[in-house]
Amino acid sequence: MSASPSRPARRGFARWLGETNEITRLFLAAGQIPDLINLAGGLPEPATFPVAELAELAGRAVAEHPGDALAYPPIEGLPALRDRIAERYASERLRLTRDNVLIVSGGMQGLDLLGKVLLDPGGLVAAQAPTYLGALDAWRPRAPRYRPFRPDRNDFDAEGALAGAQFAYCVPNFSNPTGRLVGTGTRRALVAAAETTGTWLVEDDPYGALHYDGEPLPRMIELAAVPGEAPYDGPVLYLGTLSKEIAPGLRIGWVIAAPGMIRALTLAKQGSDLASSGLGQRIALDALDSGLDRKVLPGILETYRRRRDALCAALAGQLADWFDWEVPVGGMFVWAVARDPALDTDRLLAAALEARVCVTPGSVFDPEGRDRRAIRLNFTLNDEARLAEGVRRLATALRALPA
Ligand code: PMP
């Protein structure tokens, strides 16, 4: 039904909405579009989800723990799950208690809450560039100013990057979008700069477990711990999630930080969703207690390693004249940068959709939306044959672009 002509015009939406792109909605809906190969989203392979085990845990959660699963949980999360997360990350050096842990509805909520707690309107964020678009989305209502930093540059000055910012944001393991690792020396430099400049440093780590080659590097929160200090009270906030290790539909993540920061984030969560789903938390607790995360990881790693290799082989076969890329040692993405600086990947997306393949244009990872030279390609959702077909379609789209 169309609106009645007698109705007065309504007030419009807040300004930030007009500045938000809808690409994430497109990725999440892409599965519904027939014959579209989705290389865009950071989506896991559903065949890796431990369906039978989760079904059993869900049944047990409701039948045996209705108080945890069905009543309002504490805002901070179920105490036993907070303890479990504290144990998961604690070491000789990093002493954690449940007071260091807030359970959140996916890492994405952690980003939203820390924006609420740390960012004044128009405040300055030091952000690793290119920057995860979900973080840009989460903070957009506060209209932050961004100062990008590139930790992989030889001349990287960590103190200069952080000084004066309300917080700094970094994805040190297999960054979204570039798939790159921040080296140990640079991690140390960022932590030291966070201490000397008094800047909160956000370590967003959804991909840390998805390591295909080489050894894991120390977490920045571990480097920030002062031996003997208990509980941890350092400047690094660590964001973790079950989304990539078990299943994103659980919507369970966590923030690990100084107790004062956890209290502030808890107040923000109170005004956001009161608490994360008790059912999801109870399933997460039993999954971690029974070692389900450790059980499924080898299969996930094997599948994703093969797919990474297949995507990179397809790129080498089809797109080497157009793009340069590095083979990532972990994570979910290959970042391909056009050789021709004039290639506009926003326009390429339109042509790619015509050819029935979806990729993420680099501009959405730039707060200014200006960097249009790269694309982000996901290799976890599709099998080897579909990855190869997706890249073939992308080559068709590139050939169809007007010069
Ligand atoms: N941070 C980064 C860098 C991500 O890539 C993602 C997922 N795409 C998230 C946070 C949020 O993940 P979730 O809310 O599913 O835990």
UniProtKB/TrEMBL annotation:
Q: In what residue span(s) does the Aminotransferase class I/classII large domain sit?
A: 35-393
The keyword Transferase belongs to this UniProt entry's keyword annotation = yes
Question: Some GO term, biological process aspect, for this entry: which one?
Answer: alpha-amino acid metabolic process
Supply the alphabetized keyword list. Answer: Aminotransferase, Pyridoxal phosphate, Transferase
Q: What Pfam families is this protein classified in?
A: Aminotran_1_2
List the cofactors: pyridoxal 5'-phosphate
In its UniProt record, a GO molecular function of this protein is: transaminase activity
Q: Which SUPFAM superfamilies match?
A: PLP-dependent transferases
What is the protein name for this chain?
A: 2-aminoadipate transaminase
